[in-house]
Amino acid sequence: MRLYIASVLALVVAVGADLTNFEHFKEHFGKTYEGDEHALRQGIFQRNLAHIEKFNAEKAASRGYTLGITQFADMSTAEFRQTYLGLRMNASTIAKLRKLQREVVADDRDLPEAVDWRDKGAVSPVKDQGQCGSCWAFSTSGAIEGQHFLKNGELLSLSEQQMVDCSWLDFGCNGGQPMLAMEYVRFNGGLELETAYPYKGVGGSCHSDKKSAAAKITGFWMAGFYSESALQKAVAKVGPISVGMDASGEDFQHYKSGIYNPESCSSIGLDHAVLAVGYGTSDDGDYWLVKNSWNTSWGEKGYFKLPRNKGNKCGIATTPIYPTV
User: Fold this and answer.
1) Is 135 an active-site residue?
2) Is residue 314 among the annotated active site residues?
3) Can you give the pTM of this predicted structure?
4) What is the CB neighbour count within 10 angstroms for residue 157?
5) Which of 54, 198, 241, 301 is most buried by a 10 A CB count?
């Protein structure tokens, strides 16, 4: 395992060496600043770079994951959280979700050792929510895309912007919940294609057309509650599952590879919605395979791994939701 981490670190250094230069970072990610903001962003970048290099040198081997320069390297941790972490969970929502539990019935002995729904064609390409707290919409669309594919045999890219603009119980770029988004999709009569209602990354007036709906759902269920066993059954037997997690840790902003296993991560304080698309086991242990909505420049080409069977690390099994079609 240590040899693997060492090789990964060497690769990160080789590939990302230019990005440690602020001017190269700006050019690579298309960053532009005006006036005093340039000095501000450069200072934040240097502080983040120092954290990344210190972690990779001192902790990466023992923690099992590496950090790197991402498009967020010029943002403070507080700024990043406020901009990108848009899952708005509260006690009343969780109480309602608990009433919607429908655990998948399956014998643990019948579950495959590893699952990756990308290999089955049930997962659309990684998307980018931009500077909008719409992670909840991307998690929702991903779950519906997966179920639509498994029932109809066609993989669609559905409109997140429609939910940002039209889901009346959510708050657009200021956050929302997959459960409420799925309620909207059910009552609205479905979601349009992304090409018909393209993503803009800002809230706007709703202009959906029910006649143009490309995918519909009949309802939604919660796949267990705080149970990794129940989540495993759901991922194996149902398909990609909408999940919430605690993504507030500084390391997650700069995550590059490996199984994200921070020293501290809440199973209750969920602030980011993502999509569980599989699970497996590596030399570093059991993991969940998760799709994010921060472009392919972040993480493992837009994906990341979380520890599996480690006490519901970061809350991935706290509120898993899947639609029915």
Assistant:
1) yes
2) no
3) 0.92
4) 16
5) 241
